[in-house]
Amino acid sequence: MGQALRLARRAAAAGEVPVGAVVVRDDRLVGQGANRPIGDCDPTAHAEIVALRDAARTLRNYRLPGTTLYVTLEPCPMCAGAMVHARVERLVWAAPDLRAGAVESTMRLFGAPGLNHRVRAERGPLGEEAGALLRGFFQARR
Question: Which of the residues are catalytic?
């Protein structure tokens, strides 16, 4: 999660919402990403999606079984859905997203009936730090 937080800080420095994500398999970093929808002019360039794409390239497979995705903010519905499709085994997220969080805060997408894969999800470390980074980012923009 520390590396994800470093990526979130880089996103903030680039003017992006400070979210970072890493994908790990067998204790090895296989993918990483920071928010970059503004810089890439791509509404899907959330940190999780960027990290999943990076991991898929590294592993040469769009399926990512046996992986854990660590992210500094609770994923939105798009990102949670991408994790299901990629067959991510486990998600660890730091700060809750009370407006758009699809794991626990506004919906529980991973428990939706009809899904052909279940992602295990849990709150992880550095939630206070990740939340403070986000709050500071948005306060500076006001």
Answer: 48
